[in-house]
Write a structure and sequence with these properties.
The protein is elongated. Helices cover 0% and strands 54% of the residues. It is mainly beta. The termini are far apart.
Amino acid sequence: MLLCDAAQVSDGKLYILGGGWSMTGPDPVPSAVALKIDVDWHEAEKPHHWELFLEDADGRPVMMETPDGSQPVEVRGEFTVSQPQGIPEGSPIDVALAVNLGPIPLAPGTRFAWRLTIDGESLPNASLGFTTRPAPQVAE
């Protein structure tokens, strides 16, 4: 997992713009989460469900106002991989995902994390923390 300004997938590769940051804001800006997932050989040919959850420092969902009321900031999708010919049996199979996000209003001077689950399970090291810069001091 990598935080970046933008990302895209082409021919199974991740193309990342402005990658590797851990501080943003304080104003909302577009961002992306680039994901490279290693799928076990025996998990090929099966559909997999992934979800990204934005959480605060205490692990609570970050809520955003929408036309339907307050909603948690979440992104989800599906992927299925095939066992490539010519690859030794048992090899992990790469899946590249790019999740581009519009500006999300976040509290300045606060810690957040994107948490990834696959098929309902949190994976080790599948959390990506970042901090929003403090709001600038206003001269009185």
